[in-house]
Q: What sequence folds into this?
């Protein structure tokens, strides 16, 4: 029997790796992937707590998070595509203006 | 047995997530992320969430990651590989943020461990399968959010098409 706190620890570790990734990488696509990683860490936490509480609401929430992540990925990647077409760079440090 | 599987999966997930943020080539990062997502699906099965495990593999590891790889390959990234990376203070800030985050979560996990009395508070209705139970919840209690989600997806599709569609000015 794996304790709930072990799952919470794993989720915490994965989330922290995602946070560090957002800080140390400058490639927009990789930053985006790190955000997906953080979402997944939170999903793991939701499922673990859902089991611990004996309720399925947490799993329904994970379902919604996955849907939102799919929508977010579609829009985000479209933005990155447009960005690359106009600026020919993916480095977020070079993209510091809202309009050019 | 369950412990062994958990530790193997946990180690795999951690190793590949760290590899993901260290690899310079975005394609490698994406492939590492796929491994992490599949391992998380295994953990979902262990937690008794079979439906979510299936959705995780199909939607995340299948659809979203293919979208990522597609975009990576659409943009030519060869020139990006030789760029200078992050400034030093940002790396330090990242380290501090990561460690701080970790501490925060560990404290909250410790608090949870100290105060959780239930442990395994009765799995809901043993006879019903996981996906059926989720479906019942989804179409009764969470019907409105479910419908709103469809509007959100529609808006996302329209937005993506408008943003990425060819309109060279």
A:
């Amino acid at each position: 029997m794996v304790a709930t706190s072990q799952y919470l620890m794993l989720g915490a570790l994965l989330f922290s790796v995602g946070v560090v990734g957002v800080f140390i990488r400058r490639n927009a696509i990789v930053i985006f992937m790190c955000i997906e990683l953080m979402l997944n860490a939170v999903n793991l936490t939701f499922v673990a707590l859902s089991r611990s509480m004996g309720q399925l609401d947490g799993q329904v929430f994970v379902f919604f998070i996955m849907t939102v992540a799919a929508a977010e990925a579609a829009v985000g990647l479209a933005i990155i595509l447009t960005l690359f077409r106009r600026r020919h760079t993916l480095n977020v440090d070079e993209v510091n203006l809202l309009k050019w | 047995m369950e412990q062994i599987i958990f530790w193997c999966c946990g180690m795999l997930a951690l190793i590949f997530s760290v590899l993901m943020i260290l690899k310079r080539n975005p394609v490698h990062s994406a492939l590492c992320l796929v491994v992490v997502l599949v391992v998380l699906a295994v953990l979902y099965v262990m937690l008794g969430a079979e439906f979510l495990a299936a959705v995780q593999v199909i939607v995340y590891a299948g659809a979203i990651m293919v979208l990522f790889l597609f975009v990576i390959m659409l943009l030519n990234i060869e020139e990006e590989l030789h760029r200078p990376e992050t400034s030093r203070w940002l790396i330090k800030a990242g380290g501090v943020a990561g460690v701080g985050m970790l501490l925060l979560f560990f404290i909250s996990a410790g608090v949870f461990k100290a105060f959780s009395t239930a442990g395994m508070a009765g799995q809901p209705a043993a006879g019903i399968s996981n996906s059926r139970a989720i479906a019942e919840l989804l179409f009764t209690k969470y019907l409105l959010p479910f419908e709103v989600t469809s509007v959100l997806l529609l808006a996302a599709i329209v937005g993506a098409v408008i943003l990425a569609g060819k309109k060279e000015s």
In short: Chain B has a mean pLDDT of 83. The radius of gyration of chain B is 21 Å. Helices of chain B lie at 2-22, 26-46, 50-74, 88-115, 130-138, 143-164.
